[in-house]
Design a protein that fits this description.
mainly alpha, 4 helices
Length: 121
């Protein structure tokens, strides 16, 4: 996917987040992961770390070597997305208490990914 497509999709997801209330923490976490993935790809494509023909979908699907390679390029971005993905199972797939706080953490991580990706544009 091309950079502008990633940006458009990420912004559309983030705009949809505005409709969510505090009780919609599962949707917020899921949306943070989806938008964060697009912003990560923006940063990786802009730096020519990955060509536009090669997108990251989930950090947990990367091989160890690929995770390391991307982490060398920008550990902060890769780890932020991995942190969002780690928040997901207990609150989106599970029923742990503290979902609203987990969603706020996921959204904070999303902001950091977005801000860094946009700062490079």
């Amino acid at each position: 996917m091309h950079i502008e497509q990633h940006i458009t999709t990420a912004r559309r997801i983030e705009n949809s987040l505005q409709k969510c209330g505090p009780e919609d923490y599962e949707i917020k976490i899921e949306a943070a992961m989806l938008a964060g993935t697009h912003w990560l790809n923006v940063a990786l494509h802009r730096r020519d770390v990955n060509p536009v023909s090669k997108d990251v979908f989930h950090t947990y699907l990367l091989t160890i070597n690929e995770f390391r390679r991307l982490s060398v390029a920008d550990a902060e971005l890769v780890n932020a997305l991995a942190d969002i993905e780690n928040i997901r199972p207990p609150f989106v797939r599970g029923s742990w208490a503290g979902g609203e706080q987990a969603a706020e953490r996921a959204l904070a991580l999303l902001r950091s990914i977005r801000n860094k990706a946009l700062a490079e544009g």
